[in-house]
Amino acid sequence: MISKIIALLLFTAILTGQPIAYILCEGNFSVGNSTLWRIDEQNDISGVGENPLGDTGQSLTIHEDRLYAIMNGTGTIEVFDIQTSGNLTYLQSINMNFSGPREMVVLNGKGYVTEWYTNSIAILDITTLSIIGNIAVSGLPEDIVTDGEFLYASITMNPDWTSSNLIVVIDPETESVITEYQVADGPGPLILINQELIVSSTYYDASWNSYAATSKINLSTGAIDINDYGQSTLFGTDIIYYQSSVYRIYNNGIIRLDNNLSPISESHLGGFPGLYSMSNYQNFLYLGLSNFVAPDDVKIIDFFGNEIASFQVGAIPGSFAFYQHTTPCEPTGDTNNDTSLDILDLVQMVSHILGSTELLEDEFCRADSNSDGVIDIMDVVYWVDQILANP
Fold it and tell me: Is the same domain home to 58 and 204?
């Protein structure tokens, strides 16, 4: 009871600092009832005026003040401008020609969209909102992430729709695959943590029995660790990173994975029948629960398992995105914002690089000396030089 009271007080105290949360509900296949919802800073929920958006809402991406909703079945990307209040203004629909678009990441003014039916990654000019090219890959690409220099995409199936086991590394300058890694079959969601790429896998045998695995790639050494859990219906596909640990959907809840990618049984937070999707923002988890018929539910919980809020949404809530309007900051190196650049700031940066802690958005911005979107040893060296030059 005490932990729940603390969680509720904490949630109430930081509501004004909470983001706007957007939820994309897939809707039922071929019905055309995908919907988009918004939870505002006052914890009120509303559907957007353009609902339904189309068929099979796949994923959400936010870049700067714009939201992109990928409609897999309709084969479109629905684009919205985000107002300072978090309200959405519909901008336009991008026709992807029924290419089976899945996920998107933005890098250097271009959106990279994975497409199942073309075995490629489409390149979107985010200024003109037009497709300007494609990058061929060896199968059906699912998730895609970036480290600010390269793109990493999971190839979930081969061109014949059998399970693939590939992660491809793409150089956006040459628009070509430069490296491939072999992981567990059926790679899907990806998490990039410094120089490690975590891969969630789900695959099936000829009788459609479900199997699950998690893989880890050390991008510095090329070493690959695979933990195949075997035949199981307990694992979901979504994974998240929180306080130096990886969590995965498991048995109507979430579970933390150890360094060997094995589930830690005592960390299980359960009791959420129909758990279909999850995401996190700061200290809170957003869970999508579904029985595949509207209305379905979204719950916000803390990492003690306490329920903070619950909302009814459309059918099959599958993707979350978060937005918080911020004023631009200058990279000063003063991560803790105490008006002094010193060793305490360097400790925070090194801790972030090592994965021991995570810098918050404003802290990250102040630490990023070259504004390349990555905190690394080059930033630390720069700020050390600044301290020595200005004792």
Answer: yes
